[in-house]
């Protein structure tokens, strides 16, 4: 079934049908193809036929962590609604959607508030609520967003997590201002793109991988720092000097407590804002100077870039179709589903920004 086709009742899966998936039995194990039975959607659930997925750093992070196994990974995807459960009214079979790990039920206190994009209305049943490394998956209706069919599947797929998280952090969480200075620790290209869209005049990328310089410059990076190249000088000292007092906005995209502290020290006194996107990979706390907090600096966390999926993803789709938001540059590789492990290798080796995994290739 192609991405534009409607599902017909007689072609729908039954609970006894088997699907192919890419899953693991234990942490760090190579993904393997297996057949499993897929359940019918329950009340307020949607079953999707996955057209394509892209590999996110979160997949790699959780792949190495102890968890409930066996597990089907994948959460950044584009799919077609195959069937719906009781009570589902906002989508129908044949609709084109992107799933998101963060629900947006629209009814809970958090969804009705502009203060947060968190949602208490959906339960997590599989990997980040999606598990898209499979031909079909069942998700809560609060986790699917209708998209304009004019956007290509591989571009829409990116909005399911990475782009929304990075662009949203600059747009929704930081509210980067025109002419401001931005420092991105662990060069997240999505944050760079968001800062560019918001009109930042200085965008500094900090990363140990020199290969990220070229893609960063294509997206609007004005400066690049490899910490290996500055000798014994504190990184924060270099950034404060480059920005004549500190960056207006600092984004930590890796998930290291030490880097959060460095980002905070690099922000400007008076109004500098540090936004944490990365989940601390070792579970360690971070410490910041209380004196600097008293001087007006702030630090805040960001989940999914502050994006409310059902409202904001269609805005990002329109920005792409209007040639404002760039997505094409982020796709560096495309592979068939059988080569899913190669996609992991490319990301782990730092050779890929986004690898699209097509289910039918």
TrEMBL record:
Its cofactor is Zn(2+). It comes from the Eukaryota. Pfam families: ADH_N, ADH_zinc_N. Residues 186-312 form the Alcohol dehydrogenase-like C-terminal domain. It catalyses: a primary alcohol + NAD(+) = an aldehyde + NADH + H(+); a secondary alcohol + NAD(+) = a ketone + NADH + H(+). The keyword Zinc applies. Homodimer. This is Alcohol dehydrogenase. Residues 45-146 form the Alcohol dehydrogenase-like N-terminal domain. PROSITE patterns: ADH_ZINC. Belongs to the zinc-containing alcohol dehydrogenase family. Keywords: Metal-binding, Oxidoreductase, Zinc. Transmembrane segments: none annotated. The keyword Lyase does not apply. PANTHER family: ALCOHOL DEHYDROGENASE, ALCOHOL DEHYDROGENASE-LIKE 2.
């Amino acid at each position: 079934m192609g991405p534009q086709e409607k599902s017909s009742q007689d072609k729908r899966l039954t609970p006894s049908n088997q699907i192919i998936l890419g899953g693991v039995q234990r942490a760090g194990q190579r993904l393997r193809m297996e057949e499993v039975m897929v359940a019918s959607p329950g009340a307020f659930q949607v079953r999707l036929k996955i057209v394509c997925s892209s590999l996110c750093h979160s997949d790699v992070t959780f792949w190495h962590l102890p968890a409930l196994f066996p597990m089907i990974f994948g959460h950044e995807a584009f799919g077609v609604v195959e069937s719906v459960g009781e009570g589902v009214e906002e989508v129908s079979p044949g609709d084109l959607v992107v799933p998101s790990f963060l629900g947006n039920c629209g009814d809970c206190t958090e969804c009705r508030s502009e203060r947060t994009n968190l949602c208490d209305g959906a339960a997590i049943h599989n990997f980040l609520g999606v598990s898209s490394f499979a031909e079909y998956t069942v998700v809560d209706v609060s986790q699917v967003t209708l998209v304009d069919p004019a956007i290509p599947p591989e571009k829409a797929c990116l909005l399911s997590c990475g782009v929304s998280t990075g662009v949203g952090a600059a747009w929704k969480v930081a509210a980067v201002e025109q002419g401001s200075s931005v420092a991105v620790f662990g060069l997240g290209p999505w944050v760079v793109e968001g800062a560019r869209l918001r009109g930042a005049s200085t965008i500094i990328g900090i990363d140990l991988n020199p290969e990220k310089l070229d893609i960063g410059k294509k997206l609007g990076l004005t400066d690049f720092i490899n910490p290996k190249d500055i000798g014994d000088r504190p990184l924060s000292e270099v950034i404060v000097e480059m920005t004549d007092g500190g960056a207006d906005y600092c984004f930590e995209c890796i998930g290291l407590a030490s880097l959060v502290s460095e980002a905070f020290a690099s922000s400007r006194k008076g109004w500098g804002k540090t936004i944490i996107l990365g989940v601390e990979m070792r579970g360690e706390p971070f410490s910041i100077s209380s004196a600097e907090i008293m001087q007006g600096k702030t630090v805040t966390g960001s989940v999914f870039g502050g994006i409310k999926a059902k409202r904001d993803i269609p805005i990002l789709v329109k920005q792409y179709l209007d040639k404002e938001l760039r997505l094409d540059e982020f796709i560096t590789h495309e592979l068939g589903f059988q080569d899913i492990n190669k996609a992991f290798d490319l990301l782990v080796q730092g050779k890929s920004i986004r690898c699209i995994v097509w289910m039918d290739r």
